Amino acid sequence: MLTDTAKNRLYWQMLLIRRIEERVAEMYGEQQIGGFTHLYIGQEAVAVGAISALNHDDYVISTYRDHGHFLARGGDPNRFMAELFGRDTGICRGKGGSMHLADVDRYFYGGTGIVGGSMPIAVGLALACSYREDDRLALCFFGDGATNQGVWHEALNFAKLWNLPVIFVCENNFYGIGTDVRFSSALSEVYKKASGYGMPGYRINGMDVLEVRQLCDEVVKHVRAGNGPALIEARCYRYQGHSMTDPGRYRARAEEDLWRKRDPIPRLAKLLIDERIATEERLAEIDAEIEEICETAAEFAASSPEPPASALYDYVFAERYPSDPHA
Ligand SMILES: Cc1ncc(C[n+]2csc(CCOP(=O)(O)OP(=O)(O)O)c2C)c(N)n1
Ligand SMILES: [Mg+2]
Q1: Residue 233 Cα, ligand 2 centroid: separation in angstroms?
Q2: Which residues line ligand 1 (CB under 6 A)?
Q3: Where would I find the beta strands (DSSP E) of the chain?
Q4: What pLDDT, in 10s, does the model give residues 256-284?
């Protein structure tokens, strides 16, 4: 059973992701942010529900749609926005951008532009956990499109063969760019793919943060107890196009409207009010607090310096961090 404080926290985190991404879209329009940017709006319940079930030192690995995962892991909104602006104060000193957020202090290993690329990283980290016998696990996010990549199948096979502590979380939003999952995947019910590798597979409503959290609590316990990997398919929907440059004309308007009615944020707001955990006034205050955080983040990013030209070759090789003040 979750405490009232925990439920409030889930709400707060989902709203932060929603509002900060709305700000990202605005900043992209103003050309403050360039390059590829993939919004997570609509899918917030998956990141927040799943990551909140972890310990602080479990590993989280993400895709290019990584803003929500980074923020749900407790990443700093200022350094997040500065990274998208390509500034020196960004979480990766402006060299990663939207698709390559990483925060090693929070065991958040990124952010990758390669579809399915999160899988072998997660399995490698889980192998390290197993080798060290340190009771930690890795949680790996990916999309429905990734489940047709060769590396996806290799990763599941290896993870089960070595009985590694890794949870694979598929965010099935039914599309890989403009392609409906039914046209790209021979088996579009992703959770069933787990049986091909002898691991449990679960399907959940990814628009309900409490359902995501509850299932993840159980799966985390199961995996941490040494029972090997598991696969979760969270069915969800991205409200925007694939990336900022995609007008998304391949989806029926009626379908989009249907999923908007399932929005995870008003859903939890209603529950908080019905269960007398929060009042309308308190929810309005939370909204105002978050607006302030987004405003501060945008100002921080805009007033931060660009990386110096002398930093061009930093981080090219892992052993050399010449201009890193923390080195
Ligand atoms: C190996 C590889 N192939 C193709 C691409 C181009 N690409 C970028 S996103 C994408 C769709 C992936 O869809 P999905 O896994 O469902 O994730 P979603 O975007 O829906 O979150 C493709 C094909 C890529 N980045 N990497
Ligand atoms: Mg998809």
Answers
A1: 11
A2: 65, 113-115, 143-146, 173, 175-177, 242
A3: 59-61, 138-143, 166-172, 175-176, 179-180, 201-205, 230-235
A4: 999 999 999 999 999 999 999 999 999 99
CA distances from 201 to 14, 186, 212 (A): 25, 17, 14
- For the four alpha carbons of 249, 251, 253 and 257, in that order, the dihedral sign comes to negative
Minimum CA distance residue for ligand 1 atom 6: 115
**Separation in Å, CA 20 to CA 80, 107, 113, 259, 310:** 10, 22, 21, 21, 31
Count of other CB atoms within 10 angstroms of residue 135: 13
Neighbours of 174 (CB within 10 A): 18
4-302, superfamily in CATH?
A: Thiamin diphosphate (ThDP)-binding fold, Pyr/PP domains (3.40.50.970)
Sign of the CA dihedral running 133, 139, 144, 150:
negative
Instruction: Determine the average pLDDT of the residues in 193-207.
Output: 98
Atom of ligand 1 nearest to the CA of 38: 19
Mean pLDDT over the full length of the chain: 96
Instruction: Give CA–CA dist 235/170, Å, rounded.
Output: 8
**C-alpha dihedral sign at 72, 115, 311, 314:** positive
Query: Smallest Cα–Cα separation from 292: which of 12, 28, 9?
Result: 12
Centroid of ligand 1 to alpha carbon of 146 (angstroms): 7
Asked whether 1 and 276 are in contact (CB, 8 A), the reply is no
Handedness of CA 153, 157, 160, 166 (dihedral sign): negative
Task: Tell me which of 41, 140, 177, 233 to substitute to probe ligand 1's pocket, judged by most ligand atoms within 8 Å of the beta carbon.
Answer: 177
Domain ranges of the chain: 4-302
CB atoms within 10 A of CB 245: 9
Quote the CA–CA distance of 153 and 194 in Å, as a whole number: 10
H helices present in 138-279, as ranges: 150-161, 181-184, 209-222, 253-260, 264-274
> Is the model's pLDDT at 182 over the cut of 80?
yes
